[in-house]
Write a structure and sequence with these properties.
alpha+beta; Pseudouridine synthase; Archaeosine Trna-guanine Transglycosylase, Chain: A, domain 4; 3 domains; 10-stranded mixed beta sheet; 4-stranded mixed beta sheet
Length: 292
């Protein structure tokens, strides 16, 4: 069994918990996931089964879209609801246009400081392990890109704090917890992420996701490996297929004659069956990964 399952991860489960349940249900150890979701987050978790686990390096850098609930006026050490409040500041009414202007200011590329409590490694050690031990941590900012961001709910006020939901599409490596913190800080307040739901990951959307119960009952959709490579140039020609099956090099001229350019990577397939992914290097196309 080879392919991709799009699962709607429930809250209070780790991404690894989901993988373990899929392994148990499908009776196979070759299961992995792309893009970790924290236990308090829900939504799209792309799970690779069988030979699809070898696709990770090609599809893990996709954009992701999230629905986030932000709290302005309070913050926590983890920047989510998992820990106690560390700072509280009473929120007066905030003008909606001011909030919209602040959201727009995050569009494009910028440097973001990840949360202290995260799985990022510093000198081979995970940040959250260092944070729990109270060690001093020097965190370097990372470049991210916000492709779109918009408020999608009314602003509400409760317990001297301000809440609203926003929809954001961002590059790999973007921490929505940090984004919530930074939005609130620009408005002059502490803030944290109260809730998070991943709406899409690459070409996979929550509308097409299956629940773990559906997977358990064998009532789920297994997407082909080819479906995850929708953005890659594709070739389906007997000559290319035969060369790909044997891992042979492909002439750049043959590729240029078809695409009128030299794509950095090309996908060779036969119907819905993925045969190989080729990379342009050293003046020719060489097989980077072949599936037999």
């Amino acid at each position: 069994m080879n392919g991709i399952i799009v699962i709607d991860k429930p809250i209070n489960m780790t991404s690894h918990d989901v993988v373990s349940q899929v392994r148990k249900t499908l009776k196979t150890k070759k299961v992995g996931h792309l893009g970790t979701l924290d236990p308090l987050a829900s939504g799209v978790l792309v799970v690779c089964v069988g030979d699809a686990t070898k696709l990770a390096q090609f599809i893990e850098n996709v954009e992701k879209t999230y629905l986030a609930t932000i709290c302005i006026g309070k913050t926590t050490s983890t920047l989510d609801s998992e820990s106690d409040f560390t700072e509280i500041k009473k929120v007066e009414k905030i003008d909606e246009n001011t909030i919209l202007s602040v959201l727009d200011s995050f569009l494009g590329k910028s440097l973001q400081y990840p949360p202290i409590f995260s799985a990022i490694k510093v000198n081979g050690r995970k940040l959250y392990d260092l944070a729990r031990k109270g060690e001093e941590i020097q965190i370097e900012p990372r470049e991210i890109e916000i492709k779109s961001i918009k408020m999608v709910s009314p602003i509400t006020y409760e317990d001297d704090s301000c809440y609203f939901q926003f929809l954001v599409t961002a590059s790999k490596g973007t921490y929505i917890r940090s984004l919530c913190r930074d939005i609130a800080n620009k408005l002059g307040y502490p803030g944290y992420m109260k809730a998070l739901r991943r709406i899409s990951s690459g070409c996979y959307n929550i509308k097409n996701a299956d629940t773990l119960e559906e997977v358990k009952n064998k009532n789920f959709t297994m997407y082909s490996m080819l479906s995850s490579l929708s953005d890659f140039p594709k070739l389906e020609d007997p000559e290319f297929i035969e060369k790909a099956k044997n891992g042979m090099k492909i002439s750049p001229k043959a590729v240029f004659d078809i695409f009128k350019q030299y794509p950095s990577k090309i996908v060779i397939h036969q119907g819905e069956k993925l045969i190989a992914i080729y990379q342009y290097q050293e003046s020719c196309y060489q097989a980077e990964r072949v599936w037999n």
